[in-house]
Amino acid sequence: MTRNEKAAFVARKLAALYPRLRIPLDHEDPFTLLVAVVLSAQCTDRKVNEITPLLFARARTPQQMLKLRVDEIQDIIRPCGLSPMKSKGIHGLSRIIVEQHGGRVPDSFEALEALPGVGHKTASVVMSQAFGVPAFPVDTHIHRLAWRWTLSTGRSVERTEADLKRLFPRDSWNTLHLRIIFFGREHCPAKGHDPRKCPICSVIGRKELFA
After folding, report:
1. How far apart are CA 135 and CA 126, in angstroms?
2. Looking at residue 68, what DSSP letter applies?
3. What does the alpha-carbon distance between residue 77 and residue 8 come to, in Å, rounded to a whole number?
4. Residues marked as catalytic
5. Other CB atoms within 10 Å distance of the CB of residue 34
6. Which end of the chain is more exposed for a tag (fewer CB within 10 A), N or C?
């Protein structure tokens, strides 16, 4: 099976398994999504969804977030981990959004990636899920599965993103990356994975998985 044929198989299988999608991080608008994605670094979506209601009860706009002190933000988000860095990032990006973007989250990769605490992956999630711009955010699930399915070399997340963008139609990126994430959590975990029982690895998985 060629790499393109494997990609087509993956797309069909995932569409059948996940015909309807929901965004894993609870949010109401681009700003609350941006904050939730920043909090999700090295933290589970479930934990983020437990903490964001507490934070957004105090501040759900960049203007309101600026009225909180950094240490107040840190106290609320502490269970998400990396709270000193994340609290400074959330306060800092809120200031830039207010001062440079009229209080609205910018809708370009360049402007998003210029915000404190916002890297390419975070910007990609916001662009795809908040603004509907085709993007292929690569998290640990997608990076791992792309390697397992021989769709990418797995040498870096940047390489994985480029490989997947070449293999799949642009108009499928926003739904496909979510489907891969859900599949990775439910069927293809990092630990305790049995490739022989996996709906995709059992068909196109790397030979190393079966050694």
Report:
1. 9
2. S
3. 40
4. 121, 139
5. 27
6. C
Find where tokens 């960049």 sit: 62
Tell me if 3-21+136-210 shares its fold with 30-129.
no
pLDDT digits (tens, 9 = 90+) for 59-107: 999 999 999 999 999 999 999 999 999 999 999 999 999 999 999 999 9
pLDDT-derived band of residue 154, with 50, 70 and 90 as boundaries? Answer: confident
Three-state SS annotation for 79-91? HHCCHHHHHHHHH
3-21+136-210 placed in CATH 3.90.79.10 = no
Report pLDDT digits (tens) over 109-141: 999 999 999 999 999 999 999 999 999 999 888
CA 120 to each of CA 57, 124, 135, 169, 184: distance values in angstroms, whole numbers, following the listed order: 28, 6, 10, 20, 21
| C-beta of residue 209 within 8 angstroms of C-beta of residue 195 | yes
What is the assigned CATH class of domain 30-129? Answer: mainly alpha
Region of 82 (left: φ > 0; alpha: ψ -120 to 50; beta: rest) is left
